[in-house]
Design goal:
The complex is a heterodimer of chains A (331) and B (222). Chain A has 331 residues and is mostly helical. Chain A contains eleven helices and no strands. Chain B is globular and about 50 Å long. The chains are: A mainly alpha (331), B alpha/beta (222). At the A-B interface, helix 2 of A face strand 1, strand 4 and helix 2 of B.
Chain lengths: 331, 222
């Protein structure tokens, strides 16, 4: 393992988050089995007090979980210089078999942690703890995933050997490399561009409609999912080409480098945050019928919709900007 | 109006110095009436007042205000209920030194976001009502005991609460000022306020303003 400050931060941070989640799960298990708001017992009142503490601790712990995705990407990107053949995070992640599973799990946990924070935010605005069981149920799902992620991340960092020969992104993200990525890079640009722009514009239109009228939740939610998929496809299919100004380089990680203005970070943040706010807006929708949330849910949904639209807009404008200012002409 | 169901309050639970301040108290406080909690020092009067006024949470048991259960409420809701439903008059008055009587009266209303001019006008009206309008610009450390208490009463009323809670309100007053205080309480009651006081002063619990006396000892109702 390299004694790199970012690696130590990630390993220690993830271990602490896992421990805090385990503690929260112990409280959560008692809440799920013993919670009864009608009861004035000492146990019930102590659970009510304890849930404030757990909620506050989890807000910080899962907040770190959100940031740790980008810290992980930043770290593995900067480790590339240590491996023969690696030019960016793609090579570092490929340095042993735990890199990509860690990244995938980090993305899943990013979305789940974000959803939990949205549920917690909504629950804290209801006077009778309306989402408490759902909140702690989700925490019981997140905890093992974060624990596995911590184990995978530790295995990845501890298994890194300096000067190991790894693959360059130029060989990993080509149409000849095999697997899902080769399928994506082999896609024709024009249909992907059409799918990306049309799904994003339709989502923005549906989002504005939902924001103004509160109608059209289902299509807006579906389109949020479509934007997530089409953005990832677009990134590897044509956006990366415009950024690198090379017709064959599809790497989704080199765009994080300073020579490309670190454009990858705002792009990834806008894609993931747009999807998260969109899904979060839909996740709380079923609870608007509860008396204590009747006024809260529409207000929170409006805020989440606004954020989702903002991040989708950033995504749209970054892609438009890189396509407009690129010296590469694809069509 | 306020229902207390089997409430216990234990301090330092599970430690050698565990202390049961309130032990299984149940009672009902009627609206628009004056209730006095009577008992010796350490009987739990102040603790019960703080539980009724949402300033502390019980260890077990429930308290309802206007049929709404309030002990389980998250803090953000409790703060609002405390601000809008209860006005507090403390034994030591707890006025903030270094600022004027008028500012002291206005302080509890600042979080409501009311316009400064209308709040100032209302605070002045309250000070005038209790004959301390002339002292509005005086710092509170310059006030006499009687004046300080009137300012404290005005402060308790600035958010127009349903319930006024007073903890040993006459402890630092002489007989004349204590009777004056009870007259003011009579006026508040006539204006529809619910009054809850903790006191072992006979001037308070023998006053005609008082409708019910709840006697306490060792954290229980006698």
């Amino acid at each position: 393992m390299f004694l790199h400050p970012a690696i130590l931060s990630l390993v220690v941070g993830s271990a602490l988050v896992s421990l805090m989640l385990v503690h929260a799960c112990i409280v959560g298990a008692r809440i799920l089995s013993r919670w009864d708001l009608q009861n004035g017992s000492e146990l019930q009142l102590s659970l009510e007090r304890r849930t404030y503490l757990v909620s506050t601790i989890m807000t910080y712990a899962l907040g770190f979980q959100l940031l740790s995705l980008f810290l992980f990407i930043y770290t593995v990107d900067h480790l590339a210089v240590l491996f023969v053949g690696a030019m960016c995070a793609a090579g570092s992640l490929n340095a042993n078999s735990w890199g990509y599973p860690t990244l995938i799990l980090k993305i899943i946990n990013f979305l789940l942690a974000g959803l939990w924070l949205i549920l917690n935010y909504t629950d804290n605005r209801g006077y009778d703890y309306p989402l408490i069981r759902l909140k702690y149920g989700l925490l019981l799902l997140i905890t093992p995933l974060v624990a596995v992620e911590t184990a995978l991340q530790s295995a990845y960092f501890m298994g890194l050997e300096p000067n190991v020969i790894t693959s360059c992104c130029g060989t990993l993200f080509t149409s000849d490399s095999g697997g899902v990525t080769s399928g994506i890079t082999a896609l024709r640009h024009l249909p992907v561009e059409a799918a990306f722009y049309s799904s994003l514009l339709l989502t923005l239109a549906l989002g504005v409609r939902f924001y103004r009228t509160g109608r059209g939740l289902a299509p807006f939610t579906l389109m949020n999912g479509a934007v997530l998929v089409s953005s990832v496809l677009a990134l590897m299919s044509f956006v990366s080409l415009y950024i690198y100004e090379l017709p064959t380089h599809h790497c989704p990680f080199c765009i994080l480098h300073g020579e490309y203005g670190h454009v990858g970070y705002p792009l990834y943040i806008s894609i993931l945050a747009g999807a998260l706010f969109g899904f979060g807006m839909a996740a709380i929708a079923p609870f608007r019928k509860r008396a204590s949330l009747a006024a809260v849910v529409p207000r929170v949904q409006k805020g989440l919709t606004f954020m989702a639209l903002g991040f989708h807009g950033v995504n749209f404008f970054i892609v438009i900007a890189v396509a407009s200012f690129s010296n590469l002409i694809l069509h | 109006m306020i229902q207390v169901r089997d409430v216990r309050k234990v301090f330092n639970t599970g430690r050698p110095n565990e202390f049961v301040a309130i032990d299984g108290v149940s009672l009902t406080i009627e609206a628009h009436r004056t209730t006095v909690l009577k008992g010796p020092s350490g009987s739990g009067k102040t603790t019960l007042l703080s539980l009724l006024g949402c300033m502390a949470r019980p260890t077990s048991g429930r308290i309802s205000l206007l049929e709404r259960e309030i002990t389980s409420l998250p803090e953000r809701f409790l703060t609002d209920i405390r601000r809008r439903s209860f006005g507090f008059i403390f034994q030591q008055f707890n006025l903030i030194k270094g600022i004027t009587a008028l500012e002291n009266v206005m302080v509890p209303a600042y979080p409501t976001g009311e316009r400064y001019s209308s709040l100032k006008r209302r605070a002045m009206e309250l000070l005038e009502l209790f004959n301390v309008g002339a002292k509005a610009a005086s710092k509170v450390e310059w006030l006499s005991g009687g004046e300080a208490q009137r300012v404290a009463i005005a402060r308790a009323l600035v958010n127009d609460p349903m319930v006024v809670i007073a903890d040993e309100p006459t402890a630092h007053l002489d007989t004349r000022l204590s009777r004056e205080f009870m007259e003011i309480m009579g006026t508040l009651k006539a204006n529809g306020k619910t009054l809850i006081m903790a006191s072992h002063d006979p001037i308070v619990h023998e006053s005609s303003v008082v409708d019910g006396v709840v006697e306490m000892r060792d954290g229980r109702l006698v």
